[in-house]
Amino acid sequence: MSKVPSLTLNNGVEMPQLGFGVWQVPDDEAARAVSTALETGYRSIDTAAVYRNEEGTGKAVAASGIAREDLFVTTKLWNGKNETWTRDSVLRALDTSLSKLGLDHVDLYLIHWPRAVRDDYLTIWRAFEEIAGTGRARAIGVSNFQPAHLRRLLAETSVVPAVNQVELHPQFQQAEVRGFDAEHGIVTEAWSPLGSGKGLLEVPTVLAIARKHGRTAAQTVLRWHLQLGHVVIPKSVTPSRIKENFDPFGFELDAEDLAALAALDSGTRLGLDPDAFDG
User: Fold this and answer.
1) Residue pair 253/221 in contact by the 8 Å Cβ criterion
2) Does residue 109 carry a catalytic annotation?
3) Is the pTM of this model over 0.85?
4) Is 1's pLDDT higher than 70?
5) Which of 1, 23, 133, 261 sits most deeply, having the most CB atoms within 10 A of its CB?
6) Which candidate in 42, 51, 109, 121 is catalytic?
7) Any long-range contacts for 97-103 (C-beta under 8 Å, 24+ apart)?
C-alpha cells in the first residue's frame, strides 16, 4: 500500500496528493526518471504535450508492470500555438498524446494556459467536457487559470474543473487562487513546488524548520504543501532526490512553522503571468 494520501476530486476520482513531474526532462531521460519514480513508489505522473516527453513517460509506464488502475497519469493540451482551437483539433491533440503515452485514457487532462487574449478556452473546455463524457479522461481541469478565467468558465460551461495547476510555493502562495479553488470544489495543484532551484531551499527560515524536524529543506516544503491540501508534483532526474522527495511523511509542521513559512510570501512569480502569456 502506498503511504501517499489521496484527494477526492469533485467528480469522485481519487488523485494521489504527491506525484512526479517531468517538466524540462528530455524525452530520452524521461523513461529513466519516470522508471526510478515508479520504483520508488510514486503512482502519479504529470507530463504535457509541450514537454515533448510523453513517449519516454509512456515507455516507463509500460515497462513498470504496474496495473493501469494503480497509476494516475496527467497530460496537458498545449494551447500556445498561433491558432484558434476547435473541437476537432482538441480531440486530435488528445489522440496524439494518448498515442505517444501508449494509453487509451488519461486520468487527468488539463488546458495548459488560459490564453485569454485568443479567447478560445471556452471552446477548448467544451471539447474537454466531451472527452470526459467518453471516458478518455477520467477527470478534466485547467492549469494557470486565475479567478477571472475560472469565473467565466463556470458561468458559461457545465463542468467545474477538477484541478487547477498553478505556480505555488512558499515564496508565491497564491492566496486568491487557492481561496477561489477551495470555494468551488477545485483542487489546487502546485507546479514548481520547490521554487525551481531559485533559492527557496536555501532560505534560513526553511532550513531552520528542516533542522527542527530532522528533515531536508525539500521535504519540509513538500510537507507544507501537503498540510495545506495541495497536490504536489516535484521534479528531479537525480535518483537520490527523487527518493528524498517521496518522503515528506512521518512529521508535522506546527502552527509556528506554518506562520514562519506564510511570512515568506513575496507575491513574485518565477514563471509566466497567465494574464499576459499568449503563447
Assistant:
1) no
2) no
3) yes
4) no
5) 261
6) 51
7) 97/49, 97/54, 98/136, 100/54, 100/55, 100/58, 101/47, 101/54, 101/55, 101/57, 101/58, 101/61, 101/73, 101/75, 102/58, 102/59, 102/61, 102/62, 103/58, 103/61, 103/68, 103/73
